[in-house]
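Re: that backbone. C-alpha cells:
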C-alpha cells in the first residue's frame, strides 16, 4: 500500500498554530503490524525552517566586531551553518514524523525504527528519510454488544475462611526436622540439576519446596513430584524426566525431554502456631480472631472477583478474537511477553493473592508465553479500538484507585507503590489495565449473563522461580 500526502498551500497564521509541512509520504505495508514509511520534505519547508532558526538566533548571535544581535544575517547564517543544519534537521524530522503519524492514522505501538545518522539535510532539493514502525492492525470491530456470558458465583462460607486461615498459619509454622520420607505438605530442602545427556543445563542449590503432586518451573512441569521425593534416601539423588515447554527461551531445547536430578538435603514437618494475641498483632494488628476472619473473608471475596473477571474476560476475549486471524510479528510478541507477565502480577497483587499463588500462575503463563501474549495483544487492540469509539479514557483518579488497591494488599504505602511502578516503567502497563477494565465493564453492561457455581482452585503444584533451560522468556530483551 502506498499513499501520498501534501500540505495545504495556504499558510496558517501564528494564532492557528504552526504551518503544516508539504510532505510526500509513501507507506508500504510489510505485514499486518509493520509499515515502511518514506517521507520527502519539500525544499520550501527546509528554507522556511532555516529562516526561522536564523531569526531566532539573530538577537543573541556573537560574532567578532559586532555587538550581540547586530551581526548581518548572511554572516550569522554562514558562521553557524553547521549548528543550524543539525537544529533544522532535528526539528523537521520531529515535525514530519508527528504529522505523518497523525495524517496517516498510523496508530503506532512502538517507537519508530529510524537511523538518524542516515538522514542528511541537503543544500539543495528535498530532505528524504525512511523509517519502520509497528502499528495497530487494521480490522473491523467484531460484534460486542449482547454477548452471552457465564458468570461464576459463590458465597464465602465459614469453611472457606477456616481453610484460608489454616494456609496463613501454615506460612508461619514452626519447622520441625523429620527423619522419614517426606509426604504431601512437608517442606524439603533440595538440590536440583538438569541435564541434557552429559550437558548441565541449569542447577539450583538448597531450594525450599513444599511437597505437592506437581512441581512447576518457569519452562516445565513435573507431575508426580510427591511420589518422586518419597523415593529419596540418605542424600542420594533421585531422577525424573521433564519435558521443556514449547515456548522456552532456548529454542533448540523446546519440547525436549531432559533429566532432572533431585537430592533431598532436609525434610521438615510444619507445626502450625496457635492464634495468640501476639500473632494477631503480627498478622495485621487485629484485635481478635473474628476481626482476622472478617479480613480473610474480604480477601476471599476479592479473589472471587478476580476469578469472576478472569472467566468473564476469557469469554469476552474468545468472542472478540474469534475472527482475529491476523498474524503478529514474533519480535513484537517476544518484546510484549514480559509486559504481559508484569500486568498479570499487578492484577494478582491487587486482588490479594499470596506469593505462592502468583508464582504458580506466572509459571503457567511462561510455559505458553508466545501463544498467551498473542491472544492478549489481539484482545488489547480490539478493546483499545472499542475504547476509542466509546470515548473511554483514563484519569488521575483511576491511577490513585489502582495504586491504593495494590498498596492495601501489599502492605506498602501508596506513595511507595507508585514510586516503584514509575521506577520500573510500569505506569503504561497500569494505563492499559485501566482502559481495558473500563472497556470490559462497558461490554459487560451490554451482555446477557447466567450464573454458574464456582469452586476455589486447590493448589496441586509447588512453583519455584527457576528455568530448566537456564533462561526465561523476556530476559535480556
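Recovered sequence:
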Amino acid at each position: 500500500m502506498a499513499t501520498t500526502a501534501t500540505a495545504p498551500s495556504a499558510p496558517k497564521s501564528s494564532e492557528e498554530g504552526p504551518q503544516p509541512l508539504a510532505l510526500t509520504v509513501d507507506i508500504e505495508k510489510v505485514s499486518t503490524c509493520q509499515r515502511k514509511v518514506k517521507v520527502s520534505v519539500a525544499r520550501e519547508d527546509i528554507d522556511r525552517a532555516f529562516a526561522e532558526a536564523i531569526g531566532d538566533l539573530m538577537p543573541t548571535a556573537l560574532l567578532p566586531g559586532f555587538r550581540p544581535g547586530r551581526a548581518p544575517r548572511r554572516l550569522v547564517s554562514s558562521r553557524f551553518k553547521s549548528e543550524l543544519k543539525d537544529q533544522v534537521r532535528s526539528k523537521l524530522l520531529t515535525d514530519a514524523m508527528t504529522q505523518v503519524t497523525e495524517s496517516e492514522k498510523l496508530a503506532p505501538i512502538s517507537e519508530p525504527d529510524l537511523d538518524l545518522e542516515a538522514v542528511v539535510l541537503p543544500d539543495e532539493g528535498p530532505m528524504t528519510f525512511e523509517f519502520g514502525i509497528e502499528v495497530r492492525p487494521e480490522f473491523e470491530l467484531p460484534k460486542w454488544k449482547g454477548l452471552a456470558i457465564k458468570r461464576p458465583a459463590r458465597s464465602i462460607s465459614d469453611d472457606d475462611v477456616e481453610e484460608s486461615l489454616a494456609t496463613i498459619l501454615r506460612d508461619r509454622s514452626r519447622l520441625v526436622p523429620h527423619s522419614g520420607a517426606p509426604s504431601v505438605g512437608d517442606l524439603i530442602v533440595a538440590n536440583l540439576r538438569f541435564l541434557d545427556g552429559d550437558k548441565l543445563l541449569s542447577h539450583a542449590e538448597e531450594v525450599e519446596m513444599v511437597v505437592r503432586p506437581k512441581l512447576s518451573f518457569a519452562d516445565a512441569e513435573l507431575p508426580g513430584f510427591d511420589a518422586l521425593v518419597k523415593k529419596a534416601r540418605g542424600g542420594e539423588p533421585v531422577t525424573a524426566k521433564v519435558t521443556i515447554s514449547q515456548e522456552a527461551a532456548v529454542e533448540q531445547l523446546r519440547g525436549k525431554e531432559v533429566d532432572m536430578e533431585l537430592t533431598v538435603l532436609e525434610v521438615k514437618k510444619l507445626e502450625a502456631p496457635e492464634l495468640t494475641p501476639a500473632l494477631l498483632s503480627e498478622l495485621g494488628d487485629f484485635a481478635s480472631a473474628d476481626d482476622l476472619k472478617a479480613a480473610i473473608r474480604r480477601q476471599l471475596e476479592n479473589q472471587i472477583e478476580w476469578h469472576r473477571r478472569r472467566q468473564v474476560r476469557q469469554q469476552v476475549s474468545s468472542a472478540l478474537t474469534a475472527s482475529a486471524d491476523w498474524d503478529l510479528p514474533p519480535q513484537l510478541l517476544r518484546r510484549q511477553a514480559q509486559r504481559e507477565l508484569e500486568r498479570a502480577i499487578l492484577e494478582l497483587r491487587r486482588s490479594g493473592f499470596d506469593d505462592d499463588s502468583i508464582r504458580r500462575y506466572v509459571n503457567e503463563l511462561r510455559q505458553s508465553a508466545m501463544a498467551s501474549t498473542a491472544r492478549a495483544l489481539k484482545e488489547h487492540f480490539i478493546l483499545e479500538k472499542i475504547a476509542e469509539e466509546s470515548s473511554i479514557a483514563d484519569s488521575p483518579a483511576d491511577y490513585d484507585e489502582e495504586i491504593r488497591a495494590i498498596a492495601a494488599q501489599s502492605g506498602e504505602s501508596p506513595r511507595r507503590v507508585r514510586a516503584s511502578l514509575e521506577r520500573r516503567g510500569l505506569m503504561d502497563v497500569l494505563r492499559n489495565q485501566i482502559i481495558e477494565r473500563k472497556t470490559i465493564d462497558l461490554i459487560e453492561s451490554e451482555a446477557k449473563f447466567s450464573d454458574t457455581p464456582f469452586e476455589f482452585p486447590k493448589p496441586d503444584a509447588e512453583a519455584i522461580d527457576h528455568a530448566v533451560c537456564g533462561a526465561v522468556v523476556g530476559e535480556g530483551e
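The CA atoms of residues 432 and 455 lie 29 Å apart. Confidence is low (pLDDT under 50) at residues 1-15.
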